Predict the structure.
Amino acid sequence: MAVSRLSNLGQSLKEHFGFESFRPLQEDIISEVMQGRSAVAILPTGAGKSICYQLPALLLDGCTIVISPLISLMKDQVDGLLERGIKALAITSHDTLEEARQKLASLATGQAKIVFVSPERLGNERFLYACSQSKISLLAVDEAHCVSQWGHDFRPEYRLIPEFHDKIGSPPLMALTATAQAKVQIDLMKGLGIEHAAMFKASIDRPNLWIGMQHCETQQARRSSIAWLIANQTSGSTIVYATSRKDCEELADYLSQALPPEYRKQVASYHAGMNAEKRTSVHNRFMSGFLKVVVATNAFGMGIDKSDIRQVIHAGVPDSLEAYFQEIGRAGRDGLGARCMMVLLPGSDVKRREFLMRESSDRQALARFAKVRDWVWLGDRCRRGFLLDYFGDTHDGKNPVCCSTCHPLTIPDSALYAAKTIKKNSKTTSPSSRSRSPDDVAQLLSDALADLLFEQLREWRAAVAQKADLPAYIVFGDRDLMGIAQAAPVDLELLAACRGVGPHKLSIYGQDLVEIVKCFVATLAPGSLHQTAVVPQMEAKREKKTLHQLRKSAAALLAAGSGIEEITKRLDRSADTIVQYLCDWIATAPDDSWKEIPRKLLGNEDYRIMSAHFASMADLEVPLKSIYQMFAGSFHYDKLRLGLAVWQHRDSRSKLGPTG
């Protein structure tokens, strides 16, 4: 029975999810529902709430129903579970009649282990009938604060949950949320009918987040500061929150011009005034890694579950500290460092927001905004401490990356610096290697080599994610890839011991990953890890040259008449990697050698058909799967990737005009 499986929870965690150990409170919460009791879990963003219901769902007999407020959030969860070989589905309003019928049949016959639905679905007769035919072993309620009228995201539909819970036989109910003040906690438990359930509450502190405030005197200073912050963020993605649709569009336009050239096609706006197709396109491109910066209103909401967001910037004041905390919670979900900066014109921003809220005559909202006003004019008080006090948490003041009061960040005068100048000229200084011991220098070199391998693994991940039409972090998160890079596993047994590599992912990606590591190790000079006189910067330059040479070699072999299969053998790389090398080479080819691609790899007639479709598309920056479906599967993914690379390169060259 379920109790007998409690002793094997750690083993099950590793087997299904590839994690060696639980995060704080996860095991306690799982044990509670495995023993047939309901539970309330208040865990900060990034603390692993989803594991709390996903793991018991796999261990309990029957199906787990998960109530979630957003379709995009459901989709990402289902994609991640399917990628791990777990049978999951989401029943949404976007389904066709046939899709809905098939999903309900999977629920009724017990084929699905985890089923996601919105709270509005709970009153649907067909859904209720399918539930009645299945054994429901667990009911999980995500974003459970939505049931409370005191919460900032009150959803009346959540009040349907107690009746639905009774209809499916009252299995254990797990309520999960990231933040909830004391009165919201009480209201939440009462609203769900679980007043006597055990509550598990972790500290909401996110020690990996630096929390800052920048006051500006002009709109131009604000925009320049935001551009500087983005240009000086070395990795990952950025969300910029603005307070109106107009502000979103104007700031996105400014950033597209002010940022360095490599960013300019990677900035987009997102707000409720855009049509659904455009919003979906921006969301998908951001989640897949094709967009680095999104300037959004709070319409870019709870569905953002992306592990590598390194920065959240607020270009205005939020309605409440609850909303603010939820929005900055999208940064650093992988546990790595992230920056959260509010960049304000403090007087005008606060007055404008307060005026709009007074017009609504909502006393509760005004009371919450009063705390935001205090936050803006906090003076020399610790910002992290203020937030934790507000949510009833404690702060020991020992965080090494605390806030802008305790650990200031200086943004240069916008009148003297442009973002692209800072990006180009900024240098990171560090103590001379002469002052370090040989062991220290060896460690620096080892870290630098791990960083290089990490970048190669990221390139591989991007190609895999694009081909599968998945967000890159679902294939592997940055934290998982960095663990692989640091371990440098040269066989499947060593890879299996790495964080995030469960049996399913090992079977799908194992050989590719081991091959990448082996090739990387083979390119290093013998004994380089012990040659402490070689500085990391020299190793970095040498490795970048090696990648460049590999791309050139792939192109040279192609020119000599080799096909993809032959090139994979000659260069000892996978077909996916060779196609990526050729796409990278096409994008930077200085001459016309790329023109041979259509004839040699695509076929002139096939390329003519592709290019006609590409020319008719308003937006080519869509998931590759969408283009694949447009051609009804007539062309393989690799062929489409190469065709698209040729088309985009030819199009960019034609816009430049004749070259000679």
About this structure: Confidence is low (pLDDT under 50) at residues 414-438, 525-545, 655-660. The two ends are 77 Å apart (CA to CA). The longest helix spans residues 438-468. The CA atoms of residues 550 and 581 lie 7 Å apart.
